[in-house]
Design a protein that fits this description.
The complex is a heterodimer.
Chain A lengths: L2 H15 L5 H20 L3 H27 L6 H22 L19 H12 L3 H17 L2 H34 L2 H29 L5 H10 L5 H12 L2 H31 L12 H7 L11 H16 L1 H23 L9 H8 L5 H5 L3 H7 L3 H34 L5 H25 L18 H18 L1 H12 L9 H26 L1 H8 L3
Helix pairs in contact in A: 2-5, 3-6, 3-20, 4-6, 4-7, 4-9, 4-10, 6-7, 7-8, 7-10, 7-11, 8-9, 8-14, 10-11, 13-14, 13-18, 14-15, 14-18, 15-18, 15-19, 18-19, 18-22, 19-20, 19-22
Chain B lengths: L1 H17 L5 E12 L2 E12 L3 E5 L6 H8 L7 E6 L2 E2 L4 H7 E4 L11 H11 L4 H14 L15 H13 L5 E5 L7 H16 L3 E6 L2 H7 L2 E6 L2 E7 H5 L5 H8 L18
Helix pairs in contact in B: 4-5
Classes of the chains: A mainly alpha, B alpha/beta.
């Protein structure tokens, strides 16, 4: 039996084990792996299967509607601009969404593949193939196709579109993977994780600055912003690919060649960059940080004197203190807090700079901070077992949730007040400050209450061992639905307070608007209390189920 | 095997007869758990005597972790009952959770707290008085040789230190029964000796320790009572000497009980052959 092997000789053996499998075989394997991951993630429970089917329906519905909408824009004066901006927005989404919300998957995590004898080309092709399978790519494909249909004209235009659509899609997925790979290197050290948190805030600031710049640029006229934006974006790949398709239809082939060629070049450059970072990530040693030496200052900060003295004694205080500590020390939690605080502060400032100012914009701060109450137990990851071991009664669960809500409120209430004051100052509209504050507090309370209930009902895991994942495979749809549902339900729950403000304005009883402050605050407390009361018995009943859901890796 | 046959034949009666002496710390009846098609635990009946050092042994995948998770209320069984010191785990969680300490395998701690903060936090969750928490925390950290690292975040702890802080967390509220899932897995000999010392002191006070392991030498040297688990069933249980029977060591008794093959199957003649 060893004859055949002996005949091969040492060089043959090297060729098999060192060069590894061919590019095609690896791509096939990655494709099957991705499909298997999707399948396995979905078939675990009936609820998850339903969530996945729901996500498919939503993707097809909105993707299809987007496609139809773009097709309808064909021939419209601003159709091409819309197409360009749409594709650019998709690319932006691909760049940042996977880092903040799910969407990442295990075929993407290079650490799992480090020990396989894969050549970079095979690895790259495989990951690229896996990256275009899934709901996100399907959604993107539908919209990009729509954009191409809007601008394609004549046979040459169709040919160009056939090239441009896959190119745009591949650029999007490559961008997402390249950024994730670059970040994985960064996120494997503790110092790097802190930087990443900062970059999250910088991105938020950057997007807002862009938004601000564009609107300043565009002035007052109707489609102005769109045109101004499109003028820049039509030369930014992958949106440039759409511009290329349009130019082919126009007959301006030089322009088309530049746009399409530029898009291709950028994609190739992205691939090259990705390849370099991937090779480096898989061959360089892991840079895990050892604990920093203990300083007298940090020891003093932890000794329990400080402001934590003001927290209630017992369980609620302990839970609140731990939540606040995690907000500072745990990178993923810190990212959540930092973005909520950063964006909450920025939105009123940006809208003020654009002239559309009002103290009501402070609701951003309370809404984003209120959303931190969502999936509380998922934030514990499998550490939740420690909490679960100490919860025996509804009262315990209530105090646990109350402590966590208290931590959110301790930051959110003063911060929202400051933002209301700031936006009132910017708008020079101090008269609206009380009712803006009332509305913001009602919303905060409603979201805290809702967050407690969804934490108990729809927990999902936030894997702590991988910086690449914010949702465990198969739970992404659940996460999205619970956050989206919460964002919609918050305002609905606040309807009475909103109705009060509107009625007072409509009936010229503006002298009574100040009543919104106490009423809104009271309503918020009531909503939060009701949510905690509802969530507590559910939490006690479902402790093992919550633990199973949140410890998924 | 003779001894094992005896164990199985005894069933409830055997343990009931044994109950003339020690009380029952943990009573398990008809415990089942399926994960999809796969049956992880198929109908376990078991009485664990109080005041003993009990080893739950079995090969990987035998259902040790699943069983311990269900006994400690971390995982809901599909069927069956568990009583700890006479209290039903699912109907009387107040009584049970105060009486048990748990150190699970593969679940995290709150790793962004320092060792001392973690213990203080858990003490407060358990409703212990602040002074008492401080006193116990200090002593546990001391005994477990963690005082020097008490202000370090748990995320920076080594495996041995993690097991030790986990053990401290499980002991903090002075439980009657302690459940440890693979407490010595990946632990260096020095930490293992420390853990061992603490556990021996603890059982000497009359408390019960139940721990799972697949290292027979360890079980043999630590435990006075064992239960052998394979493929989700109890194959034998009883005092160590009885389960070991005539076999030369627990290891060989165990291999026979779980039906492990002596030979290595197909001969793998290519392995180590001509390359």
């Amino acid at each position: 039996m060893s004859d055949g092997r002996a005949a091969c000789g040492p060089h043959e053996r090297d060729a098999v084990s060192v060069t590894g499998a061919s590019v095609g075989v690896v791509a096939g394997a990655f494709l099957r792996l991705k499909l298997a991951l999707v399948r396995n993630g979905v078939r675990q429970t009936a609820g998850r299967s339903a969530a996945f089917v729901g996500a498919v329906v939503v993707t097809l519905l909105f993707g299809g509607l987007g496609l139809l909408g773009m097709v309808a824009l064909r021939g419209h004066e601003h159709g091409p601009e819309a197409a360009v901006v749409l594709v650019a927005l998709l690319a932006l989404g691909w760049a940042f969404m996977p880092l903040f919300v799910g969407g990442a998957d295990e075929t993407l995590d290079p650490a799992r593949l480090a020990m396989l004898p894969l050549r970079p080309n095979a690895m790259l092709t495989g990951q690229l193939v896996a990256s275009v399978v899934g709901l996100g790519p399907l959604f993107t494909l539908l919209l990009v196709t729509g954009a191409a249909v809007t601008v394609a004209d004549g046979a040459a235009g169709v040919v160009a579109a056939v090239v441009a659509v896959p190119l745009a899609l591949l650029t999007c997925t490559t961008l997402a993977r390249a950024l994730a790979t670059a970040n994985a290197g960064l996120l494997s050290s503790r110092r790097g994780r802190d930087l990443a948190v900062l970059s999250g805030v910088l991105i938020a600031v950057g997007v807002q600055a862009l938004n601000l710049g564009v609107s300043k640029l565009s002035g007052e006229n109707g489609a102005g912003p769109l045109e101004a934006l499109a003028d820049v974006l039509r030369w930014v790949p992958p949106a440039a690919a759409v511009e290329g398709v349009r130019a082919v239809g126009d007959g301006s082939y030089g322009r088309a060649a530049a746009a399409l060629g530029g898009s291709l070049l950028v994609w190739l450059l992205l691939l090259g960059w990705w390849r370099r970072t991937l090779t480096k990530l898989l061959t360089a040693p892991d840079s895990s940080t050892l604990g920093a030496p203990e300083t007298a200052k940090s020891r003093a900060a932890r000794s329990g004197s400080g402001p934590s003295r003001w927290l209630p004694a017992g369980r609620a205080g302990a839970a609140a203190q731990r939540t606040l500590r995690y907000g500072w020390r745990d990178p993923k939690t810190k990212m959540g807090w930092a973005s909520a605080l950063g964006v909450g502060l920025l939105m009123p400032v940006v809208t003020a700079a654009q002239g559309g100012t009002s103290p009501y914009n402070a609701f951003w701060a309370s809404a984003l901070l209120g959303l931190l109450m969502y999936n509380q137990f998922g934030q514990d990851y499998s550490g939740f077992w420690l909490v679960s071991q100490t919860i025996a009664t509804s009262r315990d669960a209530y105090l646990e949730l109350y402590g966590r809500a208290l931590a959110v409120a301790l930051v959110a209430v003063p911060f929202t007040s400051a933002v209301v004051a700031l936006s009132a100052g910017l708008a020079d509209d101090w008269a609206s400050a009380p009712d803006a504050m009332g509305l913001a507090l009602a919303l905060l309370g409603a979201l805290i209450g809702l967050g407690a209930v969804t934490s108990a009902r729809f927990p999902y895991s936030i894997p702590q061992d991988s910086p690449m994942k914010n949702v465990a495979p198969g739970q992404g749809a659940l996460a999205w639905f619970s956050i989206l549902g919460g964002m919609l339900a918050g305002p609905v729950l606040c309807a009475p307070v909103i109705a009060l403000v509107v009625t007072l304005h409509m009936s010229d009883a503006t002298g009574w608007l100040w009543t919104t402050l106490p009423l809104g605050a009271g309503y918020g407390v009531l909503m939060a209390w009701a949510g905690l009361r509802l969530a507590a018995p559910v939490t006690v009943r479902r402790l093992p189920e919550i633990l199973t859901a949140v410890s998924r890796a | 095997m003779e001894a094992a046959g005896n164990q199985n034949a005894q069933g409830h009666d055997g343990t009931a007869a044994g109950a003339a002496g020690p009380a029952v710390a943990v009573r398990v009846r008809g415990l089942w758990k399926r994960f999809g098609e796969q049956v992880a635990v198929s109908g376990i009946d078991l009485d664990l005597p109080a005041g003993r050092f009990i080893g739950l042994v079995g090969p990987n995948g035998a259902g040790k972790t699943t069983t311990l998770s269900m006994i400690t209320g971390l995982l809901r069984p599909d069927d069956g009952q568990v009583e700890i010191a006479g209290h039903d785990v699912w109907r009387d969680p107040v009584a049970v959770k105060a009486r048990i300490g748990v150190l699970p395998e593969g679940l995290r701690l709150f790793e962004r707290l320092s060792g001392r903060e973690l213990l203080t936090y858990l003490g407060r969750l358990r409703g212990l008085p602040v002074d008492e928490v401080e006193r116990r925390t200090g002593q546990l950290l001391d005994v477990l040789d963690l005082s020097a690292a008490q202000h370090k975040l748990v995320v920076d702890y080594s495996t041995g230190m993690r097991k030790k802080i986990g053990l401290a967390a499980a002991l903090l509220h002075n439980p009657e029964v302690l459940f440890l899932d693979e407490p010595f897995e990946g632990v260096d000999p020095v930490s293992a000796q420390t853990i061992r010392g603490v556990l021996e002191r603890y059982t000497a006070s009359g408390a019960t320790v139940v721990f799972s392991s697949h290292v027979m030498e360890l079980v043999e040297s630590l435990c006075d009572w064992v239960a052998v688990l394979a493929a989700g069933r109890i194959k034998a249980h009883g005092p160590l000497a009885e389960v070991r029977g005539d076999a030369e060591s627990l290891q060989s008794a165990f291999l026979e009980l779980v039906g492990a093959r002596g030979d290595a199957g197909p001969d793998l003649s290519w392995l180590g052959g001509n390359r």
